Amino acid sequence: MDSNYVYLCGVIWCKFGQHDAGKELLRAANAEDPDMQALAWAMFSKGLRRLKESKKVAQPSSSTIVRGELWG
């Protein structure tokens, strides 16, 4: 596993949330190379934060529904 592959997996994980790419990042996080570990963990955590943020945006809050903003 090389750093280019890990970086590309990170891009796919961050941009699309593709699970196989996330699994590859976790596998790289257990590599013996500390630089590879750091890259994998950084990309994994960035993608995880992005996925959490996108889920918050996609799910309306109850106050939005009560105020009627969802239905115009």
Notes on the structure:
The chain is mainly α and about 70 residues long. It contains four helices and no strands. The protein has one domain. Helix 1 runs parallel beside helix 3.
What are the main properties of this structure?
0% strand, mainly alpha, single chain, elongated, 72 residues
What's the total number of strands?
0
Number of H- or I-type helical stretches: 4
Q: Kindly report the average pLDDT value.
A: 82
Distance between the termini: 51 Å
Q: What is the helical fraction, as a range of percent?
A: over 70%
Shape: elongated
Most strands sheet: none
Structural class of the secondary elements? mainly alpha
How many domains make up the coordinates?
1
Strand content: under 5%
Per-chain topology:
Elements: H1 3-16, H2 19-28, H3 34-58, H4 62-66
Helix pairs in contact: 1-2, 1-3, 2-3
Give me a quick take on this structure.
This protein is mainly α.
